[in-house]
């Protein structure tokens, strides 16, 4: 059985994330969507909220589970017996950022990284951009799942 981890901050989860999750779920026997803590990023939603949103949007995928983790992703992979890490790439900048991490992860534990290119319709979508546009009153309803959209609009309205 092949088990992979799809890590991210998912703050919030976007339709681009969900596309990668769905496609990875079709490739691996089991996919664990894992949200961790990255101190270099500012968060709109706390870890429990992000886990809850991920569970909601992944509920129809029987081979997908959602989990939180702290520390190195490769340590989490080792703990759960995952053979691979799945990362989505929107373009060259993502590749430049992700390649050294993939090489380090392989060096540390032998866990392989599988890159999936984003569908062209989601190539410009990032959680950061979605949050920025939403905070300025822009319509991001087509960029995030419906259940996430309501929470996002409520959260950014509370911060204005």
UniProtKB/TrEMBL annotation:
One of its GO terms (biological process) is coenzyme A biosynthetic process. GO terms for molecular function: ATP binding; pantetheine-phosphate adenylyltransferase activity. GO terms for cellular component: cytoplasm. ATP binds at residues 9-10, 17, 88-90, 98, 122-128. Signal peptide: none annotated. Its cofactor is Mg(2+). The record marks 17 as: Transition state stabilizer. Residues 5-132 form the Cytidyltransferase-like domain. Pfam families: CTP_transf_like. The keyword Amino-acid biosynthesis does not apply. It is found in: Cytoplasm. Its EC number is 2.7.7.3. Keywords: ATP-binding, Coenzyme A biosynthesis, Cytoplasm, Magnesium, Nucleotide-binding, Nucleotidyltransferase, Transferase. Belongs to the bacterial CoaD family. HAMAP family: PPAT_bact (MF_00151). Homohexamer. Reversibly transfers an adenylyl group from ATP to 4'-phosphopantetheine, yielding dephospho-CoA (dPCoA) and pyrophosphate. This is Phosphopantetheine adenylyltransferase. It comes from Nocardioides agri.
């Amino acid at each position: 059985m092949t088990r992979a981890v799809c890590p991210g901050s998912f703050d919030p989860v976007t339709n681009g994330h969900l596309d990668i999750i769905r496609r990875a779920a079709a490739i691996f026997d089991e996919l664990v969507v894992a949200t961790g803590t990255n101190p270099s990023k500012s968060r709109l939603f706390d870890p429990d909220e992000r886990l809850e949103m991920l569970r909601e949007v992944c509920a129809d995928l029987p081979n997908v589970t959602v989990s939180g983790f702290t520390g190195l992703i490769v340590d989490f992979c080792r703990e759960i017996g995952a053979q691979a890490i799945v990362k989505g790439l929107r373009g060259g900048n993502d590749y430049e950022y992700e390649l050294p991490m993939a090489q380090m992860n392989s060096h540390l534990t032998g866990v392989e990284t599988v890159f999936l290119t984003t569908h062209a319709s989601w190539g410009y979508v990032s959680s950061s951009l979605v949050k920025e546009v939403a905070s300025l009153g822009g319509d991001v309803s087509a960029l995030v799942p419906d259940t996430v959209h309501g929470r996002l609009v409520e959260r950014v309205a509370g911060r204005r």
